[in-house]
Amino acid sequence: MDRTEKFMKKMTEIEGISGFEHQVANLVKEELGNTCEYEYDNLGSLVCKHVGTAENTGIMMAGHMDEIGFIVQQVTEDGFIKFLPVGGWWPGNVLAQKVAIQTRKGRVLGVIGSPAIHDMDKEKQGNLMKLKDLFIDVGQSVGYDVIKKLDIRPGDPITPITEFEIMSNKKMYLAKAWDNRVGVLVMAEAMRRLVKMKHPNIAYGVGTTQEEVGLRGAKTAAALCKPDVAFALDVCTAKDTGSGNKGRPEKLGNGVGIMVFDRSLIPNMKLRDFMIDLAEKHKIKHFLGVLDNGGTDAGRINLSGTGILSMYIGIASRYIHSHISVIHRDDFDAAVELMVQACMALDKKTVESLKSF
Known about the structure:
- It is a single chain.
- By secondary structure, the protein is of the alpha+beta class.
- The protein folds into two domains: 3-67 and 176-355, Zn peptidases (Aminopeptidase, 3-Layer(aba) Sandwich), CATH 3.40.630; 69-160, Beta Barrel (Elongation Factor Tu (Ef-tu), domain 3), CATH 2.40.30.40.
- It is 27% helix and 27% strand.
- Helix 1 (3-13) crosses helix 4 (178-194) and helix 4 packs across helix 8.
- It is globular, with a radius of gyration of 21 Å.
């Protein structure tokens, strides 16, 4: 693996559901070292600041650090764990998957279980289980008291377990948590490059918290940075696996997505056109995409203060909101290049022209 792939492995395998993102933030700081100034908002969002040759424009590049997971609801008398979802889960993606519970005493391995098919009535065997009917098995057995031995408590976070792997197509990466460690990785890589360049602005590389439960950290981080322009770096749902999406551009290997619409944001059209022109000027492979359902941090940042010029930049990913998802390396590299060029080009005069009505 090259340096970036090794960083991807660390970033995706680390555990950090909404509200428990501190390990991700520490990994970003470890990567960027003393090249940036660091600050946290009161929800735990990490701000990495680098001042260029002049304090002209504040540019915020935000990737949310949290992944979807679960939280302990109850430890039953029999020693099984009942749980609640954190973020959006389809029950069909949950059953028989390995998870890790983070307790004050350490990490506990478990598997999500349900009654065996042999114990179900025939008419129930074809039905999809509901989350409330599932449980986590942490090794309960006769003579082993889970409550006393493991000290699992309600509120403890539960994270999927999946190893980062490079597929047979060496540009395809399989891992958990691409939503949205890929955005954090794009931010960190762009900051790593920018601190070595003579850029004219203040670059804010931000890892936001609690996106999956309501875009919460984006609001507080934007209030801390007060940027002039902001980019939310996030996945977009790949449209290349089903027959119902013929002609859609959101495909792996198709470049970085300049996203023109989601349920939380209609971007400034001048900024949209500026980013398209920038991608074309630097021959960065890109497409214009939409997010049919859901919103992004860009929608919450956009409404901070009196309004911030905001854009959602997407990296196509298959099978998000499950234990395993897939991205393409070229799309990642294109997103990094687009962010670097944007930070170089968005000087004060240019930004003022984009804000004129």
